[in-house]
Design brief:
This protein is an alpha+beta fold. The protein has 11 helices and 8 strands. It has an 8-stranded antiparallel β-sheet with strand order 1-6-8-7-3-4-2-5, with helices on one face. The chain is globular, with a radius of gyration of 21 Å. The two termini are 31 Å apart. The mean pLDDT is 87.
Length: 293
């Protein structure tokens, strides 16, 4: 059974629901703080402490995300109309902000969306929402699967997780330059440490791209090395919606599913494969793999 949210988080969740329903409306500090019944003199600090983003930044990202979905979803509204709905006074201001955040103009994104930078751009929004969104996992969501080995190109991140976003951006740039599209080459993450180790310098994770038989790494790609995710039996748990923080899913596998299953872990780290849903504007899903003997 889901555990009820405490009253404080319930009020903050009400704020997010209100923002979702009123992106076209007035979402200033006084209006939004009244939804949660908090003092407007403290609410901006409370909001940032809870979600890691200021109210203004959160609303800005939510409106931009909705605008991008409108563009990609085939709506007939003009770019000007979408810009106005997103709170911009002119189409030019919207276009500049859109290109800065997503690396494409609104018109180019409408024609051919590049979803990997889109996902990275809205990661802070998803991370904010995940702070109070409870996800409940059950044993019937876990499947046992015989997984084939995967030849991969590995882009390592070592050190403080606070710098991970910069590594992800370099990874995306390298992947584009190498012509390895997420549509043809799957994305994997391999975790060699806890999400938040006691010493941030101990954080270690690999960003990987699956390689086809005819894909080759070229000389000079010093940041990338060739490797393999070994095949074998795995417990697999699929996470949909917000996949920014997969730690709750990993902890469920370790703390609850594994002790009750009678299975034993294999000597390889937990990892995931990320992929876009059938409608990419809905975001991503991730299959979390716990290797078993």
């Amino acid at each position: 059974m889901p555990v009820p949210l405490d009253p404080y988080h319930a009020r903050m969740r009400r704020v997010l629901d209100h923002i979702d329903r009123h992106l076209d409306g007035d979402l200033d500090l006084e209006t939004v703080s009244s939804v949660a019944a908090f003092s407007k003199f403290h609410f901006h600090r409370q909001f940032k402490a809870t979600f890691g983003l200021s109210l203004h930044r959160y609303v800005q990202l939510a409106r931009m995300q909705r605008a991008s979905k409108s563009l990609a979803g085939g709506e007939e509204a003009s770019v000007t109309a979408i810009a106005m709905d997103a709170g911009y006074e002119t189409p030019d201001a919207f276009a500049r902000a859109f290109r800065q955040r997503l690396g494409q103009s609104p018109s180019d994104f409408r024609k051919s969306p590049d979803w990997e930078p889109w996902l990275a751009a809205f990661r802070p929004l998803n991370a904010a929402r995940s702070r109070i969104m409870q996800t409940i996992f059950t044993p019937d969501q876990v499947t046992l699967r015989d997984v084939a080995p995967a030849r991969v190109a590995i882009f390592e991140h070592r050190g403080d997780p606070a710098t991970l976003d910069a590594t992800i951006q370099r990874f995306i740039a390298w992947r584009k330059a190498a012509g390895l599209s997420p549509r043809t080459n799957p994305t994997f993450n391999i975790w060699h440490s806890e999400r938040r180790p006691a010493d941030p310098a101990d954080y270690a994770m690999d960003l990987c791209v699956g390689l086809r038989p005819d894909d080759a790494l070229h000389a000079g790609e010093e940041a990338v090395k060739l490797g393999e995710i070994p095949g074998g039996r795995c417990a697999v748990l699929r996470v949909t919606g917000d996949t920014h923080n997969l730690e709750p899913a990993a902890l469920y596998l370790y703390r609850h599913w594994l002790p009750a299953s009678g299975e034993e872990m294999r000597d390889f780290p937990i990892y995931c494969q990320r992929f876009f849903l059938d409608q990419p504007e809905r975001g991503t899903a991730a299959d979390l793999f716990l290797p078993l003997k």
